[in-house]
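Sequence design from tokenized structure. All designs in this work follow the same two-part layout: the structure record, then the generated sequence. An example of the structure record is given first.
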């Protein structure tokens, strides 16, 4: 069943990638890991104290026959998030053909392919899915945006109908009733009239909508409906494009807490019981098992564990925590299990404080503040006064209408957002998601980039870099001892060590017994020798002197390494690191070549941050280490207040607050959900080189906006001079006006004409 289950999940994984569902791919990745872990062999000499059984999600099979199964699942009645996640996983499963869930009755009924899987195998498979649904990442409901697209189309219907009727009745000469054409234009102009009247009565000022309304009115009175219908269509199109480039105000920072298991184990009156997370109170004893996230902030009452804090603090290597040590919500227990005294819950936790910082962060205007708005405000009154003066002096309504028609703001209002939209689309083709025109505008002016370290500049995975020996010890035997001792352990250093041994062709030896101390090291009997493998604290506890190796390799003191000893004698050390991404150095050099100031901001220790900075040529004074989320936000704010336009690049929950406070926030497609939703720019290909491309594209967009402004202004100003001197027919004015707008719009599409890799 284990092999079949792995093949099944891998096939689902392929389908999910083809559909482009990152969230579903992650869920299936997790399912695949769980299926392999559940069936992996356990060492017969492993002591019972090193493993703790984790209670599964309680459920009971009520009815089961081949092809059909019904069960009772109490959690359905108290956890809507769990209901949704389980529904998604069951519906995505290729064995299951039909699912019916009744949360109020706490029951699930399903049909499955009885010819492909036995009753017993299906019950086991379903149990795995039930457990997986507690932490699975699935797409959020209602995220398709179909309603928004339908609304945009409905707003364009009337202007399109008006233009079509005007074209048929005018140049094509079809017998379309004038009332029908004018009526359609009038109804389509109602939104413009409403905005104009609101500006006049509420704001007590004339705005661009007032000029548009006057131009529509005068050109309609001239008896040529094609001109006002074309103006109306361009006006609405420009508004829709600007709205498309606007930054969404919806933020999903709360998903940081929502990602935690909604039901937790607590100890009450000596009994273990499951309760909803929102019922946990300070003073409760929460039990956390291997592979689970810690749901609260508190201190350890009993137990010890290796905890992965990367999402919260950015530390690349898990830390050991034991009785009395503090632990935080959203961190992951890799090994061991804990009884934790609850001190803070929900938004009061450190993770919750990150949410609060995100929610309180300043968010820019949802509509790009471009040249059109600024020029429009300055030109409205002169244009209106000039048109009125020409009408009074000449008595020619045509000249007055031509002047209002030659409002070059319409061309700018269409071309600027069109350019932004084209650039955003071009960025998407290159694997860069830019959420708004404002983000693109800010990105063009970035002069300081702040990088998170772990998982951003580095790969976020531990790898072994080499072996150092003393007193003639054989490096291959030292590595064989270490790999044998660490076999079947799952923490990152053990995995890195086993991979390195495999790459070096070193085979594991015979092991007669072993004892693993969580977060410290391993004691094992290997080929009759008592071998110890672990950190410097473990060696000190085992009374193994490390000064001898430090005398030979002084640089080893304080570095990331595990030590190997046999029969009380130190053999050497195995160094490991979190390596840089392959593209990191080139990216930093490219940014520095543009005069951009580079900073490192990390929750990791300063020594590791300095090591990375020295490899990349980043100044020591630009290193900010040992920083929790609120401290990261403070550093970004300080840089902004010093006059810098700051871009922050990060991928974890611990980066969400800094991302929210940056002028431009950048994350990876594989980053945490809250980091992706907070970020203005998402590098979907998870490659830092895309940041350089994004900045170059933003700068090109600014140049195009300047060109489009000139394309819109110069022809209209020339036509305006003609209209006020020798006269200009409104239709000719409309041709100049619309022609310049079209030329500017086409010019704005240039980013789409370049190849994907340019």
């Amino acid at each position: 069943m284990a092999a079949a289950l792995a093949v099944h999940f891998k096939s689902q994984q392929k389908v999910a990638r083809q559909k482009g569902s990152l969230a579903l791919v992650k869920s299936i990745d997790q399912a695949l890991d769980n299926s392999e872990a559940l069936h992996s062999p356990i060492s017969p000499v492993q002591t019972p104290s090193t493993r703790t059984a984790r209670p599964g999600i309680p459920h009971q099979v009520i009815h089961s026959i081949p092809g059909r199964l019904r069960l009772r699942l109490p959690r359905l009645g108290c956890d809507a998030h769990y209901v949704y996640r389980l529904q998604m996983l069951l519906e995505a499963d290729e064995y299951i053909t039909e699912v019916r869930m009744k949360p109020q009755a706490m029951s699930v009924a399903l049909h499955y392919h009885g010819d492909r899987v036995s009753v017993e195998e299906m019950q086991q498979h379903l149990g795995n899915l039930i457990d997986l649904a507690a932490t699975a990442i699935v797409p959020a409901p209602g995220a398709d945006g179909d309603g928004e697209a339908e609304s945009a189309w409905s707003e364009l219907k009337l202007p399109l109908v008006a233009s079509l009727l005007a074209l048929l009745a005018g140049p094509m000469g079809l017998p379309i009733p004038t009332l029908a054409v004018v009526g359609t234009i009038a109804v389509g102009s109602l939104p413009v009239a409403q905005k104009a009247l609101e500006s006049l009565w509420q704001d007590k000022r004339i705005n661009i909508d007032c000029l548009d309304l006057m131009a529509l009115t005068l050109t309609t009175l001239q008896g040529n409906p094609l001109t006002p219908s074309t103006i109306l269509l361009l006006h609405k199109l420009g508004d829709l494009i600007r709205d498309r480039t606007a930054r969404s105000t919806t933020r999903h920072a709360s998903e940081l807490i929502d990602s935690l298991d909604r039901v937790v184990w607590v100890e009450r009156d000596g009994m273990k019981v499951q309760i909803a997370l929102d019922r946990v109170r300070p003073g409760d004893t929460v039990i956390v098992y291997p592979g689970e996230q810690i749901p609260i902030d508190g201190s350890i009452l009993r137990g010890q564990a290796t905890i992965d804090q990367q999402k919260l603090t950015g530390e690349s290597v898990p830390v050991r925590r034991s009785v009395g040590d503090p632990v935080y919500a959203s961190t992951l227990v890799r090994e061991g299990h804990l009884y934790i005294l609850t001190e803070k819950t929900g938004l009061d936790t450190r993770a919750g404080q990150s949410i609060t910082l995100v929610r309180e962060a300043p968010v820019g205007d949802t509509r790009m503040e471009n040249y059109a708005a600024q020029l429009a405000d300055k030109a409205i009154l002169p244009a209106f006064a000039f048109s009125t003066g020409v009408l009074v002096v000449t008595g020619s309504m045509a000249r007055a209408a031509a002047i209002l028609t030659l409002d070059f703001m319409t061309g700018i209002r269409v071309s600027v957002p069109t350019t932004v939209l084209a650039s955003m689309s071009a960025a998407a083709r290159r694997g860069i998601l830019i959420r708004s025109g404002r983000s693109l505008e800010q990105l063009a002016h970035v002069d300081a980039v702040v990088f998170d370290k772990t998982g951003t500049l580095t790969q976020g995975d531990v790898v072994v870099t080499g072996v150092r020996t003393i007193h003639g010890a054989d490096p291959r035997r030292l590595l064989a001892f270490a790999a044998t001792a660490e076999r079947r352990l799952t923490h990152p250093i053990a995995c890195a060590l086993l991979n390195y041994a495999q790459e070096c062709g070193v085979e594991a030896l015979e092991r007669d017994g072993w004892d693993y101390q969580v977060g410290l090291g391993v004691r094992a009997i290997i080929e009759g020798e008592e071998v110890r493998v672990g950190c410097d604290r473990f060696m000190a506890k085992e009374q193994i002197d490390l000064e001898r190796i430090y005398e030979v390799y002084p640089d080893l003191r304080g570095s990331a390494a595990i030590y190997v000893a046999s029969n009380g004698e130190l053999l050497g050390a195995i160094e490991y690191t979190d390596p840089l991404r392959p593209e990191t150095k080139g990216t930093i050099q490219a940014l520095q070549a543009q005069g951009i100031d580079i900073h490192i901001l990390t929750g990791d220790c300063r020594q590791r941050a300095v090591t990375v900075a020295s490899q990349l040529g980043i100044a020591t004074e630009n290193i900010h280490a040992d920083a929790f989320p609120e401290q990261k936000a403070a550093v970004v704010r300080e840089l902004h207040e010093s006059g810098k336009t700051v871009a922050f690049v990060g991928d974890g929950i611990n980066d969400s607050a800094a991302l929210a406070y940056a002028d431009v926030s950048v994350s990876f497609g594989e980053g945490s959900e809250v980091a992706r939703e907070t970020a203005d720019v998402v590098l979907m290909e998870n490659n830092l080189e895309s940041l350089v491309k994004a900045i170059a594209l933003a700068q090109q967009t600014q140049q195009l906006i300047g060109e489009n402004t000139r394309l819109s202004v110069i022809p209209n100003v020339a036509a305006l001079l003609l209209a006020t001197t020798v006269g200009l027919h409104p239709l000719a004015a409309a041709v100049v006006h619309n022609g310049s707008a079209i030329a500017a719009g086409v010019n704005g599409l240039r980013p789409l004409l370049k190849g994907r890799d340019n």
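The two ends are 48 Å apart (CA to CA). We note this feature because it recurs in several other targets discussed in the main text.
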